[in-house]
Amino acid sequence: MIALFKRELSLSFRSGGGASTALLFYLAVVIAMPFAIGPDPKLLAQVGAASLWIGALLASLLGLERLFQADREDGSLDQFLINDHPVAALVFMKALVHWLVTGLPVSLLAPVFGLLLNLSEEASLALVATLLVGTPALSMIGEAGAALTGSLPRGGLLLSVLVLPLSIPVLIFGVGAVRAALVDPDPFLPPFSMLLAMTLFFAVIGPVAAAYALKMGTR
Amino acid sequence: MKFTVDGLAVSRGEDQIFHDISFSVASGTAFIIKGANGSGKSTLLRALAGLLEWDEGSVTLEDAPGAFSEAALPQMSHFLAHENAMKPQMTVGENLSFWQDFCGHPDVSPEEALDYVGLSGLEDVPYAHLSTGQRRRSAIARLLVSARPVWLLDEPTAGLDAASEKQFAGLMEAHLEDGGIIVAATHVPLHLSKTVEYRLLGADT
Question: Chain A residue with minimal CA distance to B43?
Fold first, then answer.
């Protein structure tokens, strides 16, 4: 199991790996935002947190399509399934690596990118906290979607359609928590706890659903 | 050790590929599945590897070796499919050590395994740089890095030249002498001394 973790991690930094692609894509989204919205600092500060969250969501979607497709095409997936490791645990490992190379750097770099969007210190702090807690949910949801569409040619389209509706609640509570941290009467903790709950929920449901989809997909 | 397949039937989608397949294979035997294209050779192997669900039938194991006494057939099997299960971005050695760690029961080291298949010194070469035959041989090396008593081989010699075929036959003989079992689907002779042939006729007959 540790072996798989190491392999996935090293693969994601090699050619065709998703790590740098996701980050560059994230940067592109954030840079484009001020140009599209206009140079009004007040307006930018208002939509800044939301655009960083959208960027994170899209960046995590980017490499999902290939997650299981590559393993299926080269036959690795068959080997995963006939071994006595629980498939859900394998999927969890893969989702964890996906988060480590997309969600984690995206969360940690958010304050730097936030400078482009005139984010206040408080907002940056709240943003990092919500992204750190919320992006694992995105990886877990994405993993289940990728497992389901991995056997389809051009499954990427269906993948986004499947994953987006499930990711929307994460986005709502993530942005909601950041806003609550800035506007005084709203408490920060309830939406933040909700976000945490969703991550824990999908960390359990996602791998199990993905494992089931993978087993069905070999038939 | 011995395993017996009794009354196996497998469908893919609506179509039943074959039914009523019964045979048994004992230690030291190579069981060769023959049959026309589309007669279900690969399907039978995938079913034995546990990748396809069966409509009916059973597999019983007797006298499994100690380390595998708790395992089902797939967990004590190496499955060499058409695809080689190697990552092109990683070197041959990295690929093999990954499978050794992942499959457990380590046997020979990746370097030694590459020696056996005639790819000495290629462990630091990216898998993507290998030729078709070399790729197949590196996939065969995967069977050697971790010990499993049953080898399920689907067209194992595809892409191999005559010399490599002979080398591979030697490796299979050694595996059989150690009390292993080989179940192979192939059209070409594998040059093995002790084989049992089985002809698969397909569902229509």
Answer: A219
Question: Which residue in the set B46, B51, B101 is minimally distant from A3, CB to CB?
Answer: B101
Q: Can you tell me which residue has the tokens 């399509």?
A: A65
Q: Which residue of A has its CA nearest to B14?
A: A219
Query: DSSP letter string over B90-147?
Result: SBHHHHHHHHHHHH-SB-S-HHHHHHHTT-TT-TTSBGGGS-HHHHHHHHHHHHHHB-
Strand partners, B91: B126
In B, which residues are within 8 Å of A82 by CB distance? 49-51, 74-75, 77, 79
Q: What is the C-alpha separation between A116 and A125, in angstroms, rounded?
A: 15
Hey, is the C-beta of A217 within 8 angstroms of any chain B C-beta? no
Would you say A196 and A69 are in contact if contact means Cβ atoms under 8 Å apart? no
| Tens digit of each residue's pLDDT (9 = 90 or more) over A148-183 | 998 787 788 899 899 999 999 999 999 999 999 888
Residues 81-110 of A with CB under 8 A from B: 81-85
**pTM given for the model:** 0.89
B82 touches chain A (CB under 8 A): yes
**Which two structure tokens, joined as six digits, stand for A106?**
């995206």
Q: Which of B140, B66, B42, B129 is nearest to B96 (CA)?
A: B140
The ipTM is: 0.88
Least confident stretch, A53-62, A166-175, B64-73: B64-73
Q: Does pLDDT of B16 surpass 90?
A: no
* Range B39-58 average pLDDT: 90
Residue B205 clears pLDDT 50, i.e. is over it: no
Which token pair is B143? 């069977």
Tell me whether residues A82 and B51 touch, CB distance under 8 A.
Answer: yes
pLDDT tens digit sequence for A191-208: 999 999 999 999 999 999
